[in-house]
Design brief:
mainly alpha, 69% helix, 4 helices, 88 residues
């Protein structure tokens, strides 16, 4: 891949590929391409680094366990919504 700066900046497609790389959903054939591009493109490398920091902070912040009755409450609300409004 070419340096995004020389092509006018990072495109949505390039950014999407970075997220796929981070999510581990790229086919094996594409991993080295993206990894090489991140080494060569400072703009995409900055985007990658920022996303890594954000994901790390979210992981640390979301370590609390939800209350046991939360699932039951959510499922009850979903069920109530599916039933529709009460008949008048």
């Amino acid at each position: 891949m070419a340096d995004c700066e020389s092509l006018g900046g990072c495109t949505d497609e390039r950014i999407r590929r970075i997220y796929e790389y981070l999510d581990g959903v790229l086919p094996a054939d594409d991993l080295e391409d993206i990894h090489g591009h991140l080494r060569a493109c400072p703009a995409c490398a900055r985007e990658y680094d920022l996303e890594c920091v954000i994901r790390s902070v979210v992981r640390r912040s979301c370590s609390e366990t939800a209350p046991a009755d939360l699932k039951v409450s959510i499922l009850a609300r979903i069920h109530a919504q599916r039933q529709g409004p009460p008949a008048a």
